[in-house]
Amino acid sequence: MRRRGPIPDRDLPGLIHAPLGRDAQIAAALLQEAGVAAKISPTLEALVMSLDDNVAFAVMTEEALRSVDLRPLSAWVEAQPSWSDLPFIILTARGGGPDRNPAAARLSKVLGNVSFIERPFHATTFISAARSAVRGRYRQYEARIRMEELDDGERRLQTALKAGRLGTWELDLKTKVLTTSATCREIFGRGPHDGFTYEDLLRAIHPQDVERVKDIARRAIETGADYAIACRTVWPDGSIHGAEFRAQLQRDRIGQSVRLAGVSADVTERLQAEEQQRHLNEVLEERVTERTRELEEAHGRVLAEVSQRQRAEEQLRQAQKMEAIGQLTGGVAHDFNNLLMAVLGNLELLQRHVAGDDKAMRLINGALQGAQRGASLTQRLLAFARRQDLQVGPVDLGGLVTGMADLLKRSVGSRVAVDVTIPERLPSVLADANQVELALLNLAVNARDAMPNGGTIRVELKEAEQAEEVDGLARGRYVVLSVIDQGLGMDAETLQKAIEPFFSTKEVGKGTGLGLSMIHGLALQLNGRLKLTSAPGQGTTAELWIPVSTAAVPELQQPAAIDSRMGDVGPRRILLVDDDALIAMSAADMLSDLGHEVVEAYSGKEALALMDRGTTFDLLITDYSMPGMTGAELVKAARDRVPGLPILMASGYADLPSGVEIDVARLGKPYTQEQLASMLKKLL
């Protein structure tokens, strides 16, 4: 991947502005003696002109800044990119430190990243401060690279989503209420704001296809099989088109069927081509039949074999096409998860090396959140193909929100305040705690993005009573989780489309358009509702209504702590197999950090050669998708050599290809060091 901002491959200079006395010459001499490049700026204007991304730090004397216009310098500091925080070293007079000198203290507000050294100072102190500034600057360059790599990956994923041209729909089996996206309605010739009910859908299906559509839907509801069908549709203008539906049955917590949810696509060209092919086949068959009658005595059999061969070849081409699509989907998921594995693994280990450096930790945490967002996107895409069951149970929303307060404040940044209001007594709700936490975090980030100039986000909880069923929200008691911002707000048209999948008001690369749609889907699964109210210039209020639970919240048991060094299993020799050197290095670093001895192999053949030479291992960790020999083939060969060897399969695929049955432990990529340690504890 191309790096727009690589780490400089030369020594970065420190700028010096000390116009009075010999301070500038002394500072420059000390830096050069310590091997740090130095450049003297005789005026503040010259220093500002020299500031850029390739400067390590700046040294200035307090008295040089007392009676000059600091606005150009302040403007440069404010205009730094998000990854940059240039270090400044201020030389103050004796007794003039920031705790006793208000003028010096004010420089902290203007310059941001400031270190003060009182004169006279020891040369070692000055050199130590300069070297610390250089190290901090290089960490900023490394963070810049990580952030740019994540931005590139998200832009590619967003482009792929739009290129798919998929519409989404959801049918409530009890009320027959049909919810569709604008793209889905467009497939049926409707406008983005046109109403489109279940009855409208049935009327839009070609009369010759409607019973077949109903039968397949009925079979999917009765058996739970995947719903997949292509049919002809009739648009309001009378033109004939084609649509393909794919969906899965969703059940409630007691196993009853509640809705069908899936995607739709315009397949007009495909159906037209198939219709033309059928017509051509019919014409061809008629001609073959006529010709066969003419040559029946000498030739009926040769023509029949040719016809059968043509049909067999067509079926083979179709099967190969579908297989290629499946391989492409799995390959993209595998490669994307591998990229995230390398990013997350290295960032997680890097955190330990910058402990105590708040700026570096903040940058790393930002990069981690971006990578985790990418992993979440992969899971969201997979959720459209197969639904993942919720872990529903009694949840204390008050405790959940209280526990997330610090995370919310860190996630929205210092320009936005978070105000949390929770009543003393609230009933528990019936929900999936992890999904509610993710929903709250998504709503808070959306609120932050709606306030580019900063502001306050209010998070409130309250109990509400629904007297009668309104808009699909049943009668009963609810706890309402509200996230209120003071941002730009949305007009009526934008508000109507806000929960549609892939709809986003953010620029490309800044959002996926899946956040609100997933929260909306979660609310429906919990028999609740997501309510949005907004107006331009008046901010937005998002309310997540969740039904009250009749059961008490179970008392939480503290899980046993996992040894951060060994995972409670002691040091072991581990054979790590992955054809991607970047992924292998990341995983090996995790295992070594846990205290284990790691031997790396980059193919199944290389791994088996190590075993055949008599090298013994306590555990084999292998990827599935590798050239030459897959992980499944390696597992079989390794088991033939060492029958009792524990094996862990780490794969970027959501599921292994059909027909592959492997009796080994599984760990999906990307994974964290804690997840890896937990799995090692189970296996060893």
From TrEMBL:
SMART domains: HATPase_c, HisKA, PAS, REC. InterPro entries: CheY-like_superfamily, HATPase_C_sf, HATPase_dom, His_kinase_dom, HisK_dim/P_dom, HisK_dim/P_sf, PAS, PAS-assoc_C. PROSITE patterns: HIS_KIN (PS50109), PAC (PS50113), PAS (PS50112), RESPONSE_REGULATORY (PS50110). The modification 4-aspartylphosphate is found at residue 623. The keyword Plastid does not apply. Residues 281-322 form a coiled coil. It holds the Pfam family HisKA. The keyword Transferase applies. Residues 573-684 form the Response regulatory domain. Transmembrane segments: none annotated. Residues 153-224 form the PAS domain. It is an enzyme of class 2 (transferase). GO terms for molecular function: phosphorelay sensor kinase activity. Keywords: Coiled coil, Kinase, Phosphoprotein, Transferase. Residues 331-550 form the Histidine kinase domain. Residues 227-279 form the PAC domain. It catalyses: ATP + protein L-histidine = ADP + protein N-phospho-L-histidine. Its EC number is 2.7.13.3. This is histidine kinase. It comes from Allorhizobium taibaishanense.
